[in-house]
């Protein structure tokens, strides 16, 4: 081919490229006019999208960096999955009201395991029906803010677990010279509170099935993280390491379901016996005592809404959603309170005013306890990337068009660590949740349970558990970091939840009402100090505004 022919070909190619770019720009503009803009965002590599640039160990931090650059809404590709990231609380509230956003994200691992059953991974009719039922059942079991008999019964059931945990810490501290790993006792007793409510059964500490379920939970949550690449590039499942993880999860599911089937069978038999006995005595049927009993009582034969798989996955979801999140929160709580003697001192000053085994109503009078728990939920969002949603149908919200099949991430981490809302976000300051009158007040940007149509249905149960566990443990013990503790890791491990690395604490039993006067004096001094700090902060904010 001659030089001039080559030149002509090159010019033609260039012309074609320019025409393609112009046509796609016109189409893009037309689509934007018709459907709204797509959110801005970074470019990625073909096929892989932005995945290679995410920090696998801390994806929440990589995504936070992008939020600083692109703002409260942006879009990127994770492999083939178009992902919209929200890091502005007002936008999250607005978007999560839309029906079109109630689906779940098309993630290979979670879909592969849950298959659309249960509640957390379900969508459409099954999800809607199951969610409505679940909320009714949780209320019937006492999960309500109204003071009533069922709430008192629920409190007693939680308190049983709390007392067992406090007792174990006391024994362990005596045996181990005060220094212990708080996780095993907490995991056992908190897990049993959920077992009792969900299955109506609890385990002994050394029960082999229970030890297996706990280990599976601890490992499993790390493997089903949103950022796991297999979620977006399913062909990577053939790599040896991914094969192992997927096999571990699928084996775990099969074994868990086998354990659940035996519990379900026992419960069915027991319900039959109870019913017969009550019929003979002409008594009305007994009120269900667990989620499992509620489900079996209302079960309709041949309905997919009540099939075996739906039941097994619902039980697994409730165990996972209830234990992983609350356990991680309490582990961060103990770690931060041990790190922050000033906060612990102030909290204990309030708790010392209460009885030795304070009730929920008593603990709820401690404004500082509530503030400490909220600050823990803020500083270490236990679901840093939220639980992702999926876009069911194309939808235009405000200026933006979200395409069907996209994943929507609620970047709780960035929302809760935004320095414009929470100055010096890495500092643990429960006072952020107290107003000028010293009352509890949570800013609107605090959304640990997310918002909208899929908001956590267990939020009140979670609050009751967190308050009772945290309040009674800190009422009984002074906790400290042991002097020989290696450097503390506050980054944690990020799977679907963000959990702290293992740590040990020194537990010293507080003598009943000992030093009350001293504690009161310290509290007064503390309040003075905080007033000064508040003034300094307010003045700093004024200067910033100016
Ligand atoms: C500190 C404790 C907890 C935190 C921080 C938490 C947080 C969350 C979050 C962020 C979601 C996602 C909401 C969404 O998709 O928009 C969620 C969903 C859920 N949570 Fe919780 N949760 C906690 C405790 C509990 C407890 C104790 C239960 C037990 C009943 C529970 C049951 C659920 C369920 C079933 C869902 C799925 C709801 C749905 O998909 O419709 N959670 N939770």
TrEMBL record:
SUPFAM superfamilies: Cytochrome P450
Keywords on record: Endoplasmic reticulum, Heme, Iron, Membrane, Metal-binding, Microsome, Monooxygenase, Oxidoreductase, Transmembrane, Transmembrane helix
InterPro entries in alphabetical order: Cyt_P450, Cyt_P450_E_grp-I, Cyt_P450_sf, Cytochrome_P450_fam2
GO-annotated biological processes: organic acid metabolic process; xenobiotic metabolic process
Sequence segments annotated as region (Disordered): 513-546
Highest taxon in the source lineage: Eukaryota
Residue spans crossing the bilayer: 6-27
Cellular component, GO, one term: endoplasmic reticulum membrane
Cell location: Endoplasmic reticulum membrane; Microsome membrane
Binding site for heme: 456
MF term (GO), any: heme binding
Its membrane topology: Peripheral membrane protein
Names of required cofactors: heme
Protein family membership: Belongs to the cytochrome P450 family.
Cited function: May be involved in the metabolism of insect hormones and in the breakdown of synthetic insecticides.
Name by which UniProt lists this protein: Cytochrome P450 306a1
């Amino acid at each position: 081919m001659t030089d001039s022919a080559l030149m002509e070909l090159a010019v033609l190619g260039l012309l074609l490229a320019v025409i393609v770019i112009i046509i796609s720009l016109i189409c893009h503009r037309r689509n934007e006019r018709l459907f709204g803009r797509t959110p801005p965002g970074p470019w990625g590599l073909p096929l892989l999208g932005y995945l290679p640039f995410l920090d696998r160990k801390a994806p929440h931090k990589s995504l936070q960096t992008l939020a600083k650059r692109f703002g409260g809404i942006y879009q990127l590709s994770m492999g083939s999955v178009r992902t919209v990231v929200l890091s502005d609380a007002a936008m999250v509230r607005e978007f999560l009201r839309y029906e079109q956003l109630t689906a779940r994200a098309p993630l290979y691992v979670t879909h592969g395991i849950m298959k659309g059953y249960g509640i957390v991974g379900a969508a459409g009719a099954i999800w809607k029906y199951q969610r409505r039922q679940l909320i009714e059942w949780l209320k019937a079991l006492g999960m309500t803010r109204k003071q009533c008999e069922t709430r008192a019964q629920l409190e007693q059931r939680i308190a049983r677990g709390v007392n067992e945990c406090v007792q174990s810490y006391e024994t362990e501290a005596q045996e181990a010279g005060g220094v212990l790993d708080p996780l095993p006792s907490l995991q056992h007793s908190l897990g049993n509170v959920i077992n009792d409510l969900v299955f109506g059964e609890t385990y002994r500490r050394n029960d082999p099935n229970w030890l297996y379920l706990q280990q599976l939970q601890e490992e499993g949550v790390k493997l089903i993280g949103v950022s796991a690449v297999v979620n977006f590039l399913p062909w990577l499942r053939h790599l040896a390491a991914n094969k192992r993880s997927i096999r571990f999860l699928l084996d775990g599911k099969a074994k868990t379901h086998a354990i659940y089937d035996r519990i379900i069978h026992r419960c069915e038999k027991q319900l039959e016996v109870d019913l017969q006995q009550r019929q003979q005595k002409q008594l009305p049927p007994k009120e269900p005592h667990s989620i499992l009993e509620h489900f079996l009582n209302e079960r309709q034969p041949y309905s997919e809404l009540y099939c075996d798989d739906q039941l097994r996955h619902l039980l697994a979801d409730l165990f996972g959603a209830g234990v992983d999140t609350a356990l991680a929160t309490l582990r961060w709580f103990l770690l931060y309170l041990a790190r922050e003697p000033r906060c612990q001192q102030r909290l204990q000053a309030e708790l010392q005013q209460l009885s030795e085994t304070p009730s929920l109503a008593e603990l709820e009078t401690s404004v500082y306890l509530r503030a400490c728990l909220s600050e823990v939920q803020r500083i270490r969002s236990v679901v840093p990337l939220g639980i992702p949603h999926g876009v069911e149908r194309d939808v235009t919200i405000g200026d933006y068009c979200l395409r069907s099949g996209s994943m929507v991430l609620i970047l709780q981490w960035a929302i809760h660590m935004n320095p414009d809302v929470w100055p010096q976000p890495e500092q643990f300051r429960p006072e952020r949740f107290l107003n000028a009158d010293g009352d509890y007040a949570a800013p609107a940007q605090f959304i640990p349970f997310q918002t909208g149509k899929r908001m956590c249905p267990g939020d009140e149960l979670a609050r009751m558990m967190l308050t009772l566990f945290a309040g009674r443990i800190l009422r009984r013990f002074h906790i400290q970091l042991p002097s020989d503790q290696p450097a503390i890791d506050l980054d944690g491990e990020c799977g679907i939840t963000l959990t702290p690395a293992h740590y040990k604490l020194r537990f010293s039993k507080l003598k009943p009402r000992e030093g009350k006067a001293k504690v009161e004096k310290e509290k007064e001094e503390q309040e003075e100090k905080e007033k000064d700090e508040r003034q300094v902060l307010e003045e700093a904010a004024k200067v910033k505004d100016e």
